[in-house]
Design a protein that fits this description.
mainly alpha, 19 helices, 68% helix
């Protein structure tokens, strides 16, 4: 008698998941009524009139239009795609010099029993960047973080988490974030970046909790590499397997490392001063890579070959960034985003101050699954929530903070986020494995955000 093989469920490829979400979004444009708010101007910025929602004629997105939206994401995100491709090529050259491997190897050797020092320091760097509103450019740091994560004895998830968790910790507080906090505060008439003290505290708490979470994961993998969530997954970048030899820190590598640190410093300066992600930031990486290669004794041909090899690894990341953008296009073309926002805002308009604040928070978390742009989400939901806050006696600072937390946390898992998909795409991490890894600390972060919202209501978080 012939035995039948037991079939086990296999999660589809990341692009198949994206196509499925695009199909659901397309169907939703037929089912969910189309609606819109009227636009008004507040402090010179376009926003929506909270009292102006009305239904409009249905604008369903046809199958062909939906398919066009997916490749159309390339043209809309050409700067991001160009950035991650060029930077991956540059990192390919820098990685081949082994200057980071050698230096981190020395550091890890010195602090191998002190992950409670190394991990918080590395995570803190990206938290600071997130606090200042560095979101899309953060993708540029993933290739470097993968090397750091591997050198610490972790897997690719460690590298991605250093960047993404750090950015989320900073963005959630949003103390000095121009794309979220500044926009929201302008819309409600607050001075820019007022109330930063509580927001800094929130980011610090998230950073401390995130550090402990990541340290425990690294410790688990160090003890048993098979405990890695990525164990057995093909195509993952920079996965630690313990087989590589430790690189020696030679004079040439020290020179390359110094050059890299200088380039990294210039990159951070540029990212915090509005340098273009389409040309300036990739240019810094390219110049740094060329200098590191020459200092390491590479020929021009070797530098070029390593650059091309590194750039090739970004094909998958470019596709998921484009597809995520295409899904947003489908929802916008179907005119259902405002309908979703209006329905959620209506759910808690009659509750107490505490209930309404948490309701705003939860609504923002859900809205962020389909509207990931901080500035777009602010101009869409803040005028609505601002009015609800006035009616229920909530300060406008509290309203802004419900938006900040909601705008940040679900970026950890929503496949519509080009930042998330770009980060895990750079590392070759499947979305389902990332979800399996991230859901626990996502829930913890959401709970922490809820506590800070309640504190804001309790202390009458001001100024009004």
């Amino acid at each position: 008698m012939k035995k039948t093989e037991k079939r086990t469920f296999r999660v589809p490829h990341q692009l198949i998941i994206m196509l499925a979400i695009a199909a659901i979004a397309t169907l939703a444009t037929y089912v969910i009524p189309a609606g819109a708010y009227e636009q008004i101007e507040i402090n010179g910025r376009k926003a929506i009139d909270a009292a102006s929602f009305h239904y409009i004629d249905q604008t369903p997105v046809g199958p062909w239009q939906a398919f066009l939206a997916l490749p159309g994401g390339f043209s809309k995100q050409v700067s991001i795609i160009a950035m991650i491709t060029m930077i991956a090529g540059a990192i390919g050259v820098i990685n081949e010099t082994k200057c980071i491997d050698a230096s981190i190897g020395k550091l890890v050797s010195k602090y191998k029993n002190n992950l409670y020092i190394i991990v918080p320091l590395l995570l803190g760097v990206f938290t600071i960047l997130g606090t200042m509103g560095i979101n899309t450019p953060i993708i540029a740091f993933v290739p470097i973080a993968l090397i750091l994560g591997r050198s610490l004895g972790g897997d690719a998830l460690v590298g991605v988490t250093l960047v993404l968790m750090g950015e989320i910790c900073g963005q959630a507080g949003g103390a000095f974030c121009t794309s979220s906090t500044a926009v929201a505060q302008e819309l409600v008439g607050l001075e820019i970046f007022t109330g930063w003290q509580l927001r800094i505290i929130a980011s610090v708490v998230l950073w401390a909790v995130g550090s402990v979470f990541l340290i425990r994961y690294v410790q688990k993998i160090r003890k048993d590499p098979t405990k890695s969530i990525l164990h057995g997954v093909e195509g993952v970048a920079a996965e630690a397997d313990g087989s590589s030899e430790e690189a020696e820190l030679t004079p040439r590598r020290i020179g390359a490392l110094i050059t890299f640190i200088i380039g990294f410093g210039v990159l951070v300066y540029g990212a915090t001063h509005g340098w273009s992600t389409a040309d300036a930031i990739p240019a810094v990486f390219m110049l740094t890579a060329i200098a590191c290669g020459l200092i390491s004794g590479f020929s021009p041909d070797k530098i070029a070959k390593e650059f091309v090899k590194g750039a090739k690894t970004m094909t998958g990341a470019a596709l998921v960034v484009a597809f995520a953008t295409g899904i947003n296009t489908i929802l916008s073309s179907g005119n259902i985003i405002h309908t979703i926002v209006h329905a959620m805002a209506s759910l808690f308009s009659g509750g107490s101050a505490y209930v309404s604040a948490i309701g705003m928070y939860i609504s923002n978390l859900l809205i962020n699954f389909v509207l990931c742009s901080s500035s777009s989400q602010a101009t869409t939901v803040i005028p609505i929530f601002s009015g609800v806050g006035d009616v229920l006696g909530l300060t406008q600072q509290t309203v802004v903070q419900t938006f900040n937390f909601g705008d940040a946390f679900t970026n950890l898992v929503t496949p519509v986020s080009s930042v998330l998909m770009g980060c895990i795409g750079c590392a070759g991490v499947p979305w389902d494995r990332w979800l399996k890894f991230a859901w626990k600390w996502l829930l913890v972060f959401i709970a922490i955000g809820g506590v800070f919202i309640m504190i804001g209501v309790g202390i009458n978080y001001g100024p009004f």
